Amino acid sequence: MSYIPHTLLNLLARLYPSSKASLSSLFTAPPTTPPAFLSQLFRLPLAPTAMYPSNNRPGGYSSSGAYEITPMRPTEHSPTWLEKWSAQDRPLPEKTAIKAIHVYDFDNTLFKSPLPNAKIWHTSTLGHLMNQDFFKSGGWWHDSRILAATGAGVEAEEPRGWEGWWNQQVVSLVELSMQQKDALTVLLTGRSVAGFAPLIKRMVASKKLDFDIIALKPQRGPAGENIKSTFYFKSMFLNDLLNIYSHADEVKVYEDREKHVKGFQKFLKDYNRINCQNNVPRIGLTADVIHIVEESTLLDPVAEVREVLKMVEEHNHIVPGGTGRLVINKTVNYTGYLLAPATTSRLLNTLNIPGLGRNHKDIRLNGTGIMISPRAADSQVLINAGPLGTVVEFVVTGWGHFENKVWAALVRPVDPNFKVYSALDSHRPVIVLAIRRDGKPSDAQKITTWQQVPTGNFVVKTMIAEKAYLRVEDEGYQPEEKPSPHPSRRGNFQGRHVPYNQFGSNRSRGGRGRGRGYGASNASRKGANPEHRQESRPADKNGGYHAYERHQQGARPVEPQDMQFLSEMYE
């Protein structure tokens, strides 16, 4: 005898009262053919098992994480409804006046928004900066001071319209949209209304860009909907936009993030499919999502470090009872005659060594400097090599490789009387240009055959400094540093992890970093390195920005020259 739960039977009986006989027959013998009501039941659309509707709006996340689209109801709302989404106080065009909708993303589509500098920050810190939940005050994309620090800052950039910071091709498209009388021009960004609306309106106004709608992400939608993500917000807004301006036969979306490009393509395809099924006259709607190649930029390095220091300080003021406090630490990789990034690029381009492609998966480009010591600089190093910040010029006389595992440039000082110092025995002055996956930097000392420079000898400028990176981590925790494989010739060169609040006077210009690329944080605030140890060190009662300000010789304000080297190296 077949068994069907009584709850399901009662539901079926209410849905299909004329099929009571068929329902009863299910308790006796299996029917040779399925009852008619069952075939009707299986043709019913099934809702996703995990749907999170937004109050009265018939839409929300499906089990796959996609936003479920509301069937179009052209008469439900007027353009006044869309004004609730907009950060501008202006009336919108009538429904019948709009035949085209052009939607532009802001960050790295219209505007070249700055990203964290991978040459300054440790990989784990790059992930922390991009994480909204790591800082109590919000992360890189949620703190308006980062965007306001673009270029020379708001006060200097606004009069000149942030010249050089816009994607000029997209600006031209916006201007064409503005000239098209039947087009609705929309700026759509996932930045928050509360934090960024005044700043972004000032920025687009300075560029003389006139949008009908400037929509930023609110905490809740017009009907009280819970905004779960940027794409959820953009899909919800776009759905309302298409539902209200139902006479539009063209929609174009300009977006830089590949994930969002694919999401919008699916969204618009599903929108057309669903509304055509409901016999709504949108068959002629042409939808196009244009992928804009990201044009990101960097902040001034001194300004970037200062703004992150302020974020740390604000976080430390917010956390309750002093728990979960953050600090910025500096970890030294080595001391050397370091090249600025622009000098490194010129060196690699001038030598133009065959096989050293920038996208080679097994070869890592280097060219950062000439090693003095594989550790932080101490008094012995500084006595022999010279003080930090000393500028030394070298002539590049040739290049060579060792078994195609490591490539290097041979150099000598321009000043014949200058003695190049190294804490390592038998160490010739070379610049390691690239390393294969199975190679070692020390193998550069084994090169015996040198090729001439194609364009003749040329000069590179270096500066005595510590190659280092900064990391934001929990106060009181430090990553364990491994002993250097290079034996020192003299002096005590024990590797050390130097917090900003323990800088010596001859080290106050630290803060350089090695490029490590971007990577999501896969650990807690202690950093991505699984090896951590807690050390007893003086508690920092001020923390953050003031932790950097404090000096061994006493507290003092941070002056621009404190990070002058950082500015010169990564400008």
TrEMBL record:
Pfam families: HAD_SAK_1. PANTHER family: OB FOLD-CONTAINING PROTEIN, NUCLEIC ACID BINDING, RRNA 2-O-METHYLTRANSFERASE FIBRILLARIN. Residues 474-571 are annotated as: Disordered. Residues 113-317 form the Swiss Army Knife RNA repair protein HAD domain. It comes from Tuber borchii (White truffle). This is Swiss Army Knife RNA repair protein HAD domain-containing protein. One of its GO terms (cellular component) is box C/D methylation guide snoRNP complex. GO terms for molecular function: histone H2AQ104 methyltransferase activity; RNA binding; rRNA methyltransferase activity. Residues 474-484, 528-540 have a biased composition (Basic and acidic residues). InterPro entries: SAK_HAD. Transmembrane segments: none annotated. GO terms for biological process: box C/D sno(s)RNA 3'-end processing. The lineage of its organism: Eukaryota, Fungi, Dikarya, Ascomycota, Pezizomycotina.
